[in-house]
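Onboarding guide, step 5: your first structure request.
Type a short instruction followed by the sequence, for example:

Predict the 3D structure of this protein.
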Amino acid sequence: MFVDFDQDPFFLVFGESESGKSNLLKLIIKRLTERYDGNVCKIFVVDNRRSLLGVTPTSHLAEYIPMSNQMQHHMDALADLMQRRTPTSDVTPQQLRDRSWWHGPQVFVIIDDYDLVSTSSGNPLSGLTELLPFARDVGVRFVIARSTAGAGRAGYESFMQRMKELGAQGVLLAGDPAEGDLLGGVRPRPMPTGRGVFVSRKRGKPLVQIGQVPDTTE
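The system replies with structure tokens like these:
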């Protein structure tokens, strides 16, 4: 499974409890921090259940946010960053091709248990919805994992729906087929832990097995 964040800035993970969602996020963080220097890649980690605590090296960690009620000012700052990086009328065609009109690190927003973030009382990410079409060009990527339970109904929530409309790629791990099509016309189904369907506009919908990331917190 190869994830090209330069072309596809949105990556969604769906799965039931114990299906391997958090492990996949750990693997993505591990690969990002191996590939990019901490000066060019910064990671925001939103982690209500603290399953990602200590996973991101301090050299790459922009902020570790353990509770969604602490998110709002961080997401407001991220919205400000995206707006400042949005191309203005004086940006040249060459700069647009090279994405060279702004400077700074790529920003990865990695969220575990999105269903605990976006609730009936609100969603701290909602202010970013209108900026999502510019995410690729302004160097901001979103990696979001949520439970399959209730995901069918929650798929109409504006932030998640917008990412899907913009062609989000992702992985469907084990889950209840009754939730319906969650991503790219694929619905979850019972599977072993770590087994899933990789959904990509360019690479089809192959079955994948996610490698186990050792627990570094012990």
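Each response can be followed by summary notes, for example: The chain has a mean pLDDT of 92.
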